Amino acid sequence: MNKKNICTACGTQYPDGSTFELCPICADDRQYIPESGQTWISGEGLADNYSVIANKLGDKLYELKITPAFAIGQRALLVLTPGGNILWDCIALLNEPIIELIKAKGGLKAIAFSHPHYYSNMNCWAETFNCPVYIHQSDEQWIFNKGNHISLWEGVEKELWDGIKIVNMGGHFPGSCILHVPFLSPGGAILLGDTFVVSLNKKHISAMYSYPNRVPLPLHEMRRLKKQMAHIPFDTMYGYAAGMNLHLNVKELFESSMERYV
User: Fold this and answer.
1) Global confidence as pTM
2) What is the pLDDT of residues 23-76, one digit of tens each?
């Protein structure tokens, strides 16, 4: 627990005994090493200095976020379903209050990921709730802490239960995915990770190779993403961070945003 093996820039936890001087996730062009240099924190240090807030976004949806903001600042989204609960993406701190909250809601049937930036301490979550972790095969090279619960999948879609499915979109990473949950809204909801990102003014939606380094995707990729999304029913989107929730004219907003690129 005292081992400083969690990157403070992205929240990825590396195995005890790893010898990375720089976090491989952050050294990639899609993330960054802070100008002040690479720093690490232990799980104990994280638990001592941070906490987790759980906010109810709907009858069947909660967001979990670390406070004060840590690393990328993503949230995890807990989806409650009759067939079993699913956690979309992870945060780097799993503490007793959150464990008790999730257990009170029925535990976890699975964890699923949008992409490698949010793997964080996924093995800790999976071991605590004894559930599989679904990651697309195309992003296997970014799994530096491969626990027994990791389940790689291939193809475009992975059907889960209660109509939920993971959809591989590519773009940001080859294995970047979205989670389609049909019952979270009348027309279906999409949990984005940052496969797509909702702008701060909530008037635009973007997709990029690297968000922090402002590296765009090629035009042919934007066209492909636009075409693939046209076949998915939705009227609601939940982005990677708190507040990135869209409920009004969402399909039209997405289409007009993509038109800017293509």
Assistant:
1) 0.96
2) 999 999 999 999 999 999 999 999 999 999 999 999 999 999 999 999 999 999
Number of H helices, E strands in the chain: 6, 19
Contact residues for 253 (Cβ-Cβ < 8 A; gap 6+): 203, 204, 205, 246
Say which residue the tokens 């090279």 belong to. Answer: 141
Burial of 41 (0-12, 13-18, 19+ CB in 10 A): buried
Residues with Cβ within 8 Å of 231's Cβ and at least 6 positions away in sequence, in order, are: none
Which pLDDT tens digit goes with each residue over 183-226?
Answer: 999 999 999 999 999 999 999 999 999 999 999 999 999 999 99
Torsion (CA) 222, 227, 229, 230 in degrees, nearest 10: 140
Closest CA to 115 of 68, 166, 55: 166
